[in-house]
Every structure is written in C-alpha cells, then in structure tokens.
C-alpha cells in the first residue's frame, strides 16, 4: 500500500498517543521519543504490510510495543540508574501537591507487573477497547480484561483509594484507574 496523504495524516495524528504509551513503558521522555521515532520509521518502511481498513493506531502501538520489548531485552544487561535514585539527587523536587500526587501514582504504576501496567495504559489511558488492546498485546480479550481489573485493584490498593472520586481535579489518575473499558 502506498503512503497516501490521508494515511500520513492518520499516522501523524497517532504520534501523541504513541509518545504517551512510550513514556509509560520506558519511564523516560527521551527514550520515549526515540521509540516513537523508530516506530514511525519501521511503520513507513513496512507500510506495505498494513492492511487498509484495519486499525492503524493498533498497528502502530504493536510496532512500538515490540520495539520496546526487543530493546528491553538488549538493555537489561546494561547498568543504569533504573530506579532514578541518582537522578533524583540532581534536581530539587517542586512543592506543588499535584506533582507529588502524580509522582506517587507513577511509583505505584511502576510497581504493577509489566503485563498489567501495559493493559491498563492501553485501555485506561490510551482509550483502546479491550479488543484492540488484546490485538496489540497478542492475547485473548478475557486476558486483557483480567489484567486491567487486577491492575486497577492493585493500583487502588497501592494508593489507598476507595474509589476514583478520591482523586483531585486532575482526572489523569481517574482516567487510568476508572478507564473507559
């Protein structure tokens, strides 16, 4: 399939969601940008394998996820500041409550198993249906539903939340925990 203007525009429209997903996987904005760039390069190089009429964002998310996993396997032998403890010593933490609450959320999200975090981000934050998330992850719809449910429960427990209404005016956390699935 040739790259049409319409297809190019659809790919570009998916970039913000791809970046958000890449950040949730890598935990690093620079690394996320590299993942998105590599995803776009691979997508364009393999545009002939895209089936017209199928879900373009799901196809792109699958490419990104596979790139992340391949890269993760390569990088796990490298020594890094994985928990960010050294990096945290290089900057002062802001005093805003919203930032601190979001940091608590990010830490709790990082404690979830990779498969649960991935499913929760796809369904809760990125807005994919359970079916699309299952296609991206290469598993059954019931598996995705189970992962999302377990992730929401564990995240609520980690954050000592009785319900999504416990979160402040920032609906980011509510969107991920409460989701649309």
UniProtKB/TrEMBL annotation:
Keyword Membrane attributed: no
Family recorded in the similarity comment: Belongs to the sigma-70 factor family. ECF subfamily.
Domain RNA polymerase sigma-70 region: 15-77
A Pfam family: Sigma70_r2
Entry keyword Methyltransferase: no
Molecular-function GO term, any one: DNA binding
Domain RNA polymerase sigma factor 70 region 4 type: start-end pairs: 103-155
Key words of the record: DNA-binding, Sigma factor, Transcription, Transcription regulation
Cited NCBIfam families: PRK12540.1 (NF009192), PRK12547.1 (NF009199), sigma70-ECF (TIGR02937)
Superkingdom as given in the UniProt entry: Bacteria
Name this protein carries in UniProt: RNA polymerase sigma factor
GO biological process: DNA-templated transcription initiation
Species the sequence originates in: Rhodopseudomonas pseudopalustris
């Amino acid at each position: 399939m040739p790259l049409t203007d319409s297809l190019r525009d659809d790919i570009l429209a998916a970039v913000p969601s791809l970046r958000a997903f890449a950040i949730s996987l890598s935990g690093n904005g620079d690394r996320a940008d590299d993942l998105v760039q590599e995803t776009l390069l691979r997508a364009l190089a393999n545009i002939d394998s895209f089936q017209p009429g199928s879900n373009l964002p799901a196809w792109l998310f699958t490419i990104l996820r596979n790139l992340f996993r391949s890269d993760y396997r390569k990088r796990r032998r490298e020594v890094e500041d994985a928990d960010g403890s050294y990096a945290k010593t290089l900057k002062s933490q802001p005093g805003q409550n919203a930032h601190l609450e979001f940091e608590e959320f990010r830490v709790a999200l990082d404690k979830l198993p990779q498969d649960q975090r991935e499913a929760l981000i796809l369904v809760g934050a990125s807005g994919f249906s359970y079916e699309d998330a299952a296609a991206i992850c290469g598993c059954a719809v019931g598996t995705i539903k189970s992962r999302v449910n377990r992730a929401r429960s564990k995240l609520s427990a980690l954050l000592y939340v009785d319900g999504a209404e416990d979160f402040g005016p920032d609906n980011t956390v509510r969107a991920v925990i409460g989701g649309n699935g």
